[in-house]
Amino acid sequence: MGQIELKSFRDPLPVMEEFYSIQGEGFNSGKAAYFVRLAGCDVQCFWCDVKDSWGIEEDQFISVENILKSIQEAGAKFVVITGGEPAMHDLSLLCQVLKENGIEIAIETSGNQDLRGDFDWICLSPKKFSLPVDSVYKQANELKIIVYNNHDLIWADELAQKVNADCKLFLQPEWSNEKEILPLIINKVKEDQKWNISLQTHKYMNIR
Questions:
Q1: What is the DSSP letter of 54?
Q2: 10-residue block means of pLDDT along the chain (208 residues)?
Q3: Scanning 47, 109, 111, 179, which has its CA 20 to 30 A from the CA of 135?
Q4: How far is CA 146 from CA 64, 105, 172, 182, in A?
């Protein structure tokens, strides 16, 4: 990336919440992570457990400088940018500033639009009603399918054919339907070993 003018360093992003915790799901499960949850979502899953992130309020905007300051005060070396739908925002500046300060960056996205930023790890968690764009299929390091019913397992195989050969594949039960759907996922992974199981371990640990 090129140099960014000083005034741009203060350009704000709408942050619904930010906190230091443990990544609870997917490839990086169990890793200490500072979460930056951006406000704004054009996907709006009916089973979303953070519906408060869908809208954007004027008082949510925080400068990149202050986001960095909070991360450094927490002592975090790994940041997860999530939402909402973080791909709605240009994250190039945030990524550059974090990388200049030795911080590893992951993003969790539905992939429904091109990503703007330099990420170390891209978790693609697609939604049927707002499909990923081709560029994100190619970039994804991890494909994480939220499984609500049996058809989602069929859909997962279709999407697995679109990502790059090195992409890690995960099936994760939707939390409210976990008891019913987890046995199906277990059978699927035993039959088709390219898949792995992701669980929302942070909920078992009673942390956010």
A1: S
A2: 42 93 96 96 67 78 96 98 92 96 97 96 93 96 96 97 97 90 97 96 83
A3: 47
A4: 31, 22, 5, 11
**Is 1 a domain residue?**
no
Measured distance between the N- and C-terminal CA atoms of the chain, rounded to whole angstroms = 33
Q: In what order do the strands lie in the sheet with 32-38?
A: 61-63, 12-22, 32-38, 78-82, 104-109, 121-124, 142-147, 168-173, 195-197
Give the Cα separation of 171 and 26 in Å (integer): 9
Please tell me the distance from the alpha carbon of residue 177 to that of residue 156, in angstroms, as a whole number.
17
Q: What CATH number is associated with residue 32? A: 3.20.20.70
Expressed as residue numbers, the domain containing 134 is 6-204
Number of domains comprising the chain: 1
- pTM (two decimals): 0.90
Residue 144 covered by a domain: yes
CB atoms closer than 10 angstroms to residue 181 = 22
The CA dihedral of 99, 134, 194, 78, to the nearest 10 degrees, is 10
Instruction: Rounding to the nearest 10 degrees, give the CA dihedral for residues 183, 21, 205, 142.
Output: 10
Tokens 């500072």 belong to residue: 34
pLDDT of residue 129: 82
Strand partners, 105: 79
